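Q: A reviewer asked whether we had any structural model of the full assembly, not just the individual parts. We don't, so I'm hoping you can provide one. Inputs are below.
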Amino acid sequence: MENRPLEYDYTVAKMFMFTTIVLGIVGMLVGVILAFQLAYPGMNLFLGEGLAEYTNFSRLRPLHTDAVVFGFTLSGIFATWYYVGQRVLKVSMAESGFLMFIGKLHFWLYLVGVAAVVVSLLMGITTSKEYAEFEWPIDIAIVIVWVLFGMSIFGLIGIRREKSLYISVWYYIACFLGIAMLYLFNNMAIPTMLGTAADGASGIGAWYHSVSMYAGTNDALVQWWYGHNAVAFGFTVPIVAMIYYFLPKESGQAIYSYKLSLLSFWGLMFVYLWAGGHHLLFSTVPDWVQTMGSVFSVILILPSWGSAINMLLTMKGEWQQVASSPLIKFMVLGSTFYMFSTLEGPIQAIKSVNAIAHFTDWIVGHVHDGTLGWVGFMIMAALFHMAPRVFKREIYSKSLMVTQFWIQTLGVVLYFTSMWIAGITQGMMWRAHDEFGNLAYSFIDTVTVLHPYYTIRGIGGLLYFVGFLMFAYNIYKTMSARPVEESELQNASPMGA
Amino acid sequence: MFHWLEKHPFFFAVAVFVTIAFAGLIEILPNFAQQSRPVIGTAPYSTLELAGRHVYIKNSCNACHSQLIRPFKSETDRYGHYSLSGEYAYDRPFLWGSKRTGPDLMRVGNYRTTDWHENHMKNPAAVVPGSIMPAYTWMFTNKADIDTAFAEQLTIAQFFSVPYNKPVPMKDGSTKIVKMGGSVAEANALALAEAKIIAADMKDQDVKDAVANGEIPEIVAIIAYMNSLK
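A: Here is a predicted structure for the entire assembly that you could use as a starting point for your response.
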C-alpha cells in the first residue's frame, strides 16, 4: 500500500456540524426568552395573547432543555464522532459504503426526530419527565437513531487499522452504552390505547398517550437515576472524549498521563451511576439511597478532577498558547469550568447544603456553569478545530473568536454568580422563622426579591447567545469562503494522525 | 488487563457496561421488588381529576411547582404534613418537580378553593401581587380530553391493578369507591357530573355555559385535580 495519509470523508460530520449550530441557536434563544420571562412576566405574551399558550414559560421550558441537550449537545457529539472516529481508528468512512449509508440514515432520522420533538413539545405532548419528555412513538424513533449511532461506532471499530482504541473512543463507547441503558429503562411505559373498556372498546383517546411503568417513589428513583446520568453520559463522558482528542491535536502536546486517564475513565464509569440519589435528598426514597447518593457524589470529585487535571497538565510548559491561541483558551477554560462544576455539584449533594440549595436557582446556576462553561465551550472549540480541516479553509476571523470568548466568559460569570445569590437568598428566606417561631416570609416575598438576579441572569444568557451567534457567523464565513487549502491540513503533533 | 481491553472492543464494551450497570442493579432493583403501597386515605384519581392531571402535565406546571414536602419545620409550616411514599402510589408519572419557582402544590387542595384557582389562573398577579406566573387563559376555552383520561384509567386498572370501582380505606375508618365508567359514554357522564360540582363554584359564565352544554373546559379539570391534592 502506498505511504500517504488517508483522506477522511467528513460528509456526515458536516451534516451534524450544521445541526449543532442551528439547534444551538434555537435552544439558546429559547433559553434567553425564558430567562427574561422570569424577570419580566409580560414576556410570556411576546407573540401576543392569541399565541400565549405556545409562548409561555412552562410550555417553552422543556423545549429549551431538550433543544440544548438533544439538539445542540447530541449533534456536537455526533459531529465530533464522525470526525474523530475515523482519525483515531485510521480508517475513512469512504472505505465502506455501508457505514456511509448508516451515517447518513443516522443523520436524517435524527432530523425527523428533532422535528417531531419540537412540534410535540409545543403542543404540550409530554410525559413530564425531565429530559425524557417524549411520548412512546418518538422514543422508538430515538432508539432507532441511537442504534444507528452504535452501528457507526462499532462498524468503524470493526474495520479499523489502528488496533488500540484511543482514549476518546473509550468515552464514545461509554456514551453509547450508558445512554442506551438509561433511556430504555426510564422510558418504559404502556400506551393507553391498550386499555380495554368493559364494553370491549379499546384504542380510546389520544393514540400517542402512555402511562409510566413505575409509580410515585419508584418512578422518581428511576427518573433521577436517568436524569443525573444523562448528564454523566451526555454532558461529561462524550465531552471528555472531545477534549482528549482536540486539546492534544490543537496544542501539539501529548496527553500528560495515560495512567491518570485510565483511573479517571474507570473511576467515572463506576462512581457516576451511584450519585443519582442526590437529586432526591429528603424525599421519600429510602434513606440509604439518599446517603449513597451524597457519598458517591463527593467521591466523584476524584475521577472528574483526574480528567481535568490531566488536560491542564497536558499544557505543561506550553502555557503561552493560552494567550496566543483563542482555541486553546476555549479548551483550557472549559476544563477549568469542568473542575469548578464538579466541585460545586458534590458540595450541593451534601445533605445539609442540599436542604438549602434544592428547589432553588442555585441548582439552575450549577447546571449552567457546567453546560455553558464546559459543554458549550468544548463543542464550539471542537467545531473551530474541525472547520478548517473539514472545509479546507482557514477560520474566517481569529479576532472574532477572541471577542466571542470574552463575551461568553462574561456571560457565564454573570449567569452563575447571579444564580448563586438568588438560590441561597431564596433557600434562606424559605426556612427563616421569626422570634415567635412563625415563618418570616410568605412565598411571594421570596419571588419578588429575585427580580434583580433574574435580570442579571437574563443579560448573562443574552451575552452567551450573542457569542454563539458570532461563532455561527464565523463558521458560516469560513465554509463559504474561497478555498485556500489544496488538501487537508496535516498536523505535526505527537499523535501523528 | 487495560491494554488488552483496549485492543478488544467487544470485551471493552462488556466491561464498561458491567461497570455502569452495577450501581443500577443495587440501587434500583430492590425498590422494584418492594412496590410502594398506598397509605390509608390515598385513593386513585377520578376521570376528571386524571384529565386535570393531564392538563397540569401538558402545561409543564411541574417545571415551576414541586409536589414534595420535605421533613423540615419551615416546609411543614408552609405546606402541611411532609410527604409519605405511599401517598404517591397512584402517581404515574411522579410530579415532584425539581424547582420551586412557585410554591409546592402537594396539599394545595387543603388551603385553596375553586374560586381562588379560577381567579388566579386568569390573572395570577391580580390575586398575588408581584407574582411572575403567566396567565393560563386558554384553559378556559380548550376542552379537557376525557377520553384519554378514561383510557389511562382502563390501562392502569388492567396492568397495575389500580382499585377502581372497589372500596378504598379512608382515614376516618370509612371506605370510598372511585368509579370508573364501563364505556366511553359512561366515563364522560361521570366526568361531567363531577365538572358540574366544580362549575357551580365558578364565576366565568362561558365556563358555566360550556359545562351546562355537556362540555368540560380544561380549567374545570385542572381545578378538580388541584382540589384533590390533599
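A: Points you may want to mention in the reply: The CA atoms of residues 32 and 462 of chain A lie 6 Å apart. The mean pLDDT of chain A is 93.
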